[in-house]
Design a protein that fits this description.
The protein is built from three helices and 14 strands. The chain has 241 residues and is α+β, with helices and mostly antiparallel strands. α2 crosses α3.
Length: 241
C-alpha cells in the first residue's frame, strides 16, 4: 500500500523544529518512565493498533518493544504512527531496523501527521493480486490495476490517465475474487472522480461510488473474506517469526 495516501503532514512550526520537538519529548518521556505508547499501522489496509514500549533514544533514533503482529506489519510497511497523549498529533516514523524475533524496532525521521485513513467510513483493503480494471470515459477505455477497494471507493493505478476533472463520472469494470467459492464476480458501476496522486509505479486514480444492491453484496462479501485472509496471514507470519 502507498503509505503517503494514509496521512497528511501536520506541520506545527517547520519540519526541522517539529522533529527536534518530537525527539526532545520522547527523551523526556523515557526519563520520566512514561514509556507506554500505541502504534498504528494499516496492514494491507487493515487498521492495527497495539501498545508499544519506548526503550531508548539516541542520535534521533528511537528504540521500541512492540507487539508481535505489529512487528510483522511494520516490517511490511517500513513505517508506523506513534500515538501518545504527550503530542497534539500522531507522529509518523520511518523504520531504520526491525527484529521480528525480538519484537524490537528502531525508527527515525519523525514528523507530525494526521491519519486521513481513520476518517473513512469503511475499511479500504488492498487486493493481491491486483485485478485488471477498465475506466470508460467519453466512450474511450483506459486500463489500470485495482489497488484497493472499500464499500464506497477504489484506487486504481493507471497505465494512462483519462481526462477526468474532479466530480466527473466514468464507468468502472473489474472482477472481484470470491475467496470462498474460488470464483470471480463481475462488477460494473458508475463512479465519480475524487483525485489523483503519484506513486513510484505510476499515477493512481481515486474514485468514489454508490453501489446497487447486487454490487454492494459482492463488495461487502469480498471485504469480509479479505479481512479474514489478511488476519490469518498476519497471525501465520507472527508465528513463523
Amino acid at each position: 500500500m502507498d503509505i503517503s495516501s494514509l496521512y497528511h503532514t501536520a506541520i506545527e512550526k517547520s519540519y526541522d523544529e517539529d522533529h527536534a520537538k518530537i525527539v526532545e519529548t520522547l527523551q523526556d518521556l523515557i526519563k520520566q518512565g512514561k514509556t507506554n505508547v500505541k502504534l498504528v499501522n494499516f496492514y494491507q489496509g487493515l487498521p492495527l493498533a497495539f501498545p508499544a514500549t519506548l526503550v531508548s533514544i539516541s542520535h534521533a533514533t528511537l528504540d521500541m518493544d512492540l507487539h508481535q503482529q505489529q512487528a510483522v506489519a511494520i516490517s511490511h510497511d517500513r513505517f508506523t504512527f506513534i500515538r501518545c497523549s504527550a503530542f497534539k498529533h500522531d507522529v509518523g516514523a520511518h523504520v531504520r531496523y526491525i527484529n521480528l524475533r525480538k519484537q524490537a524496532v528502531s525508527v527515525d525521521r519523525f514528523f507530525f501527521a494526521e491519519i486521513m485513513a481513520e476518517r473513512r467510513n469503511t475499511v479500504r483493503l488492498s487486493l493481491d493480486p491486483h485485478p485488471e480494471t477498465i475506466v470508460t470515459f467519453q466512450n474511450e477505455e483506459f486500463k489500470g490495476k485495482l489497488l484497493n477497494i472499500s464499500m464506497g471507493g477504489v484506487a486504481i493505478r493507471m497505465d494512462r490517465l483519462p481526462p477526468l476533472e474532479a466530480g466527473c463520472e466514468a464507468t468502472l469494470q473489474f472482477m472481484l475474487p470470491n475467496l470462498v467459492r474460488n470464483t470471480v464476480d463481475a462488477i460494473r458501476l458508475s463512479a465519480c472522480h475524487v483525485g489523483i496522486h503519484e506513486s513510484e509505479h505510476g499515477p493512481v486514480l481515486r474514485m468514489s461510488f454508490i453501489p446497487d444492491k447486487k454490487d454492494e453484496q459482492i463488495i461487502s462479501q469480498y471485504l469480509f473474506q479479505r479481512q479474514v485472509e489478511i488476519i490469518r496471514g498476519l497471525k501465520d507470519a507472527s508465528i513463523l517469526s
